[in-house]
Amino acid sequence: MTTFGYEQSLGYDRRATRLLTGLYRRIATDIDTRSAHSATVIDLGTGPGKLLSYLATRRPDLRLHGIDLSPHMIDIARRNLAEYPVELAVADVADLPHPDASVDTAVSSLSMHEWPDLPSAVTELHRVLRPGGAAALYDFRFTRTREIRRALDAVFGAVETETIRLPWHPVAVITCYRATA
Ligand SMILES: C[S@@+](CC[C@H](N)C(=O)[O-])C[C@H]1O[C@@H](n2cnc3c(N)ncnc32)[C@H](O)[C@@H]1O
Q1: Does the CB atom of residue 53 touch ligand 1 within 6 A?
Q2: Which residue range is the domain that position 76 belongs to?
């Protein structure tokens, strides 16, 4: 399985800072409005942890966790999040180090299309969600859409989708998949 190497992770961190601020803000607002006080939120495939930094600033009460398959991404996330009490770990989304039913919200941005075994990953994220917990999964609108939808439907039953346009792009390129455990 390929993963983000050192140089690639540094490059992504720089590009994400420039290009994806609008998306991170949008997702942080979404999670903010839907999260109870002190809720546990996990960011799956957190990369350099940008989304978590927006969430930590906006909602210091949340218990924030981030995992990523790439140790280089997690090193960068640790640097970017040094001032915040965020729990970070190198882990595969299909084998999370979290107990059953321990998470209120699972979020992910632009990572799902890279998960090699979507059914196993979705089963695992469902395992860590408490009953009634929410998944809000953002990814490119035209990448593995049917496969993602099928994997989510099989585990969660009902899945809602929302199409999102980023401020700098004329075409809506992001889909948010929402499901409740
Ligand atoms: C395009 S980056 C997105 C990073 C971040 N979520 C963002 O929006 O900036 C995709 C990330 O997903 C991670 N990833 C890919 N497959 C994964 C897996 N099976 N488990 C955990 N993380 C994974 C990659 O290492 C990478 O950091």
Answers
A1: no
A2: 6-180
Q: How far apart are the CA of 159 and the centre of ligand 1, in A?
A: 22
Q: 3-state DSSP call for residue 177? A: strand
Query: Within a domain: residue 1?
Result: no
102 lies in a domain? yes
How far is the C-alpha of 9 from the C-alpha of 168, rounded, in Å? 23
- Report CA 161 to chain centroid distance, whole Å: 16
pLDDT in tens, 34-59: 999 999 999 999 999 999 999 999 99
Closest CA to 156 of 126, 130, 177, 132: 126
78, 110, 114, 175, best to mutate for ligand 1 pocket (most atoms within 8 Å of CB) = 114
Question: What total of structural domains would you count in the chain?
Answer: 1
CA 68 to ligand 1 center in whole angstroms: 6
Q: Is 66 in the pocket of ligand 1 (CB under 6 A)?
A: no
- 108 inside domain: yes
Name the region of 38 (left: φ>0; alpha: ψ -120 to 50; beta: rest): left
Across residues 152-168, what is the average pLDDT?
90
Proportion of the chain above pLDDT 90, given as a percent: 81
93 pocket-lining for ligand 1 (C-beta < 6 Å): yes
Give domain status of residue 56, yes or no: yes
Q: Residue 83 belongs to a domain with what CATH number?
A: 3.40.50.150
